[in-house]
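thread from #wetlab-drylab

HS: before we spend reagent money on co-crystallization trials with zinc ion, can we at least see a predicted complex? here's what I'd submit
DV: go for it
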Amino acid sequence: MDIDSLLDTVKAKVACGQCGAESERTVGWLKANAASDCAACGAATDLTTPEWKARIQAYIDACTGFA
Ligand SMILES: [Zn+2]
């Protein structure tokens, strides 16, 4: 299995900064998108912040460790 396919199977939670609802996304989706819209209130969570970039990279590193 290649890394991109693997990342598309790994789920991560995105907590909305506005209402706190959690949206489930795959790591592959997070890697490919700059923002995540909340399923509950529609607020966009910016995925390009240093915090999110580090978090996404940590997921990717964890996945590549299994490959
Ligand atoms: Zn929300």
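DV: The mean pLDDT is 93.
HS: ok that's useful, forwarding to the group
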